[in-house]
UniProtKB/TrEMBL annotation:
Protein name: Uncharacterized protein
One example GO MF annotation: GTPase activity
Region (Disordered): 153-183
Species this protein is from: Ephemerocybe angulata
Classification via InterPro entries: P-loop_NTPase, Small_GTP-bd, Small_GTPase, Small_GTPase_Rho
Record-level GO BP terms: small GTPase-mediated signal transduction
Transmembrane segments: none
SUPFAM superfamilies per UniProt: P-loop containing nucleoside triphosphate hydrolases
Keyword check for GTP-binding: yes
Entry keyword set: GTP-binding, Methylation, Nucleotide-binding
Keyword Nucleotide-binding appears in the UniProt entry: yes
Top-level taxon in the UniProt lineage: Eukaryota
Length: 191
């Protein structure tokens, strides 16, 4: 879908290997701007999991997770759609910078991200850096596993402690793609 020469949604198809099996992912990266609010819900309709992303170097973007994004997702998708909270640009957060308690931080800490993930009922919290290509595979692996757990009837809320072990037990070790049935794993990325 295009508007005024700008993409409203970016769509990607990716194949990953999970437990030695190919899994096809269909990803919709939605536009976060206000002018696209009425169009964004169309990308949610066939999603099996929602990734809500925020920028580590922009604390306001984490606040938007609780004041805007989770409310939009829950109102459109309902309470059963699993959500993964993703902190992006982790490479910008200094490793050992002392924090002055009286001054607001320029960066979101891992603890803050984990706290918000728990608050919104996310299945997992992950951090990644596209620049360093760090943590990106883990984001898509956990999203795929959560989607597969939902397919197997595991509730959407609560953290995934060991999705790999749990999924193997529920599905006898077989990991497959719905691609054979004309479906794919739908994943919507909200930023």
């Amino acid at each position: 879908m295009l508007t005024s020469g700008e993409a409203v949604f970016d769509n990607y198809v990716a194949e990953i290997r999970l437990d030695e099996k190919p899994v096809h992912l269909a990803l919709w990266d939605t536009a976060g701007q206000e002018e696209y609010e009425r169009l964004r819900p169309m990308s949610y309709s066939k999603s099996h999991v929602i990734l809500i992303a925020f920028a580590i170097d922009t604390p306001d973007s984490l606040e938007n997770v609780t004041t805007k994004w989770i409310e939009e997702v829950r109102s459109i998708c309902g309470p059963t759609i699993p959500v993964i909270l993703v902190g992006c640009k982790v490479d910008l957060r200094p490793e050992n910078e002392p924090q002055d308690p009286g001054v607001p931080s320029k960066w979101v800490t891992r603890e803050q991200g984990e706290r918000v993930a728990q608050e919104i009922g996310a299945r997992a919290y992950k951090e990644c850096s596209a620049l360093r290509i760090s943590g990106v595979d883990e984001v898509f692996e956990v999203a795929t596993r959560v989607s597969m757990l939902m397919r197997d009837g595991v509730p959407a809320h609560g953290p995934v402690h060991d999705a790999s072990k749990h999924h193997r037990r529920r599905s006898s070790g077989k990991v497959s793609s719905d691609q054979d049935e004309g479906k794919g794993w739908g994943c919507c990325v909200v930023c």
